[in-house]
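Example 333.
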Amino acid sequence: MSDAAPAPSIAVLGAGAWGTALANLYARDGRTVTLVARDGAAAARIREAQANERYLPGIRLSPDLAVSGELAGAATAAGILLLVVPAQALRAALRGARGASLAPGVLAVVCSKGIERETGRFASDIVAEELPDARVAVLSGPSFADDVARGLPTAVTVAAGTEPLADEAARWLSAEGFRCYASADIRGVEAGGALKNVLALAAGIVSGRGLGASALAAIVTRGFVELRRLGQALGGRPETLMGLSGLGDLVLTCSGPQSRNFAYGAALGRGDDLSGLKLAEGVYSAGIAARLAREAGIEAPIVETVAAILDNRLTVDEAARALLARPLKRETD
Ligand SMILES: NC(=O)C1=CN([C@@H]2O[C@H](COP(=O)(O)OP(=O)(O)OC[C@H]3O[C@@H](n4cnc5c(N)ncnc54)[C@H](OP(=O)(O)O)[C@@H]3O)[C@@H](O)[C@H]2O)C=CC1
Ligand SMILES: O=C(CO)COP(=O)(O)O
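Predicted structure in complex with NDP:
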């Protein structure tokens, strides 16, 4: 990778846990960064507290981080626009950003993980549709906001449509303690990020229902088979799905309740009240992922089962029995 151009300034759209952690990472690294909250009041709360107590409690933000309630201004100067709103809110947020006079050729970096449930579109497609003049990249991989905010070492994948752009984006988005690997496989990276959330729900359900460590290992392993099958059917490359943004993020989010998707699944498995839980993107992606699998003729029984539990078509116990009673088959089929 060449070191030619200076690192561009950054605007971060979405002041939740991940947007705040990323904005703070780059501000601490000496970059010019503006975190854009939903409105002026939310921005003022973060500015005054020098912290985002709602979404990233206990983390003191860099004094060099600018916080704004509107994208216009922040975005005009930014060479990089990080998109960190939930996947179902992305299209509306981008439509809202149209009047913000984005810099020509701005690099719009998708940092959310999900599939638009109404359309089956991945975020990079939504960016291409809504911001046709932007260059698109995707940042994904095993990275809890809280870990990154605390400066813990993290490695992720940054994908773009061409290898040179991916190399450039990975260089711009790497920071101290935050290592970005470049990839030219946007679809593989996005598919891994969206599907692992659905599978983390499954892992959480198994854990919350008390089905044991053996069942947990089985669901993660067979879930990974589905992630690879469906990810490839959607256009992803096998080696991407085996990498940080596929297997890596699956391992992370299926490991315990620090993952919000796992925590949501665990609450479902225990039969707890689900109101008030944090964002779990897999809840919104499961149904559409199951539909995409059916349309592609891909067997994805775990994804289908998660969707059925979320829709109240199956109880957790019925789902466990049904998965175990499927016709026997060869492991590699
Ligand atoms: N948290 C993590 O560890 C990681 C998260 N991600 C992904 O990042 C994405 C965002 O997650 P995360 O930050 O954790 O979510 P949070 O729930 O912590 O925050 C979501 C943020 O998005 C804002 N928002 C929602 N809709 C809009 C909108 N239309 N315009 C502007 N802002 C909006 C919310 O504002 P308001 O409060 O006003 O609703 C809130 O600030 C998800 O897709 C997630 O999968 C990826 C890697 C790590
Ligand atoms: O994507 C993530 C880590 O890579 C965050 O996972 P959760 O949304 O399940 O917390």
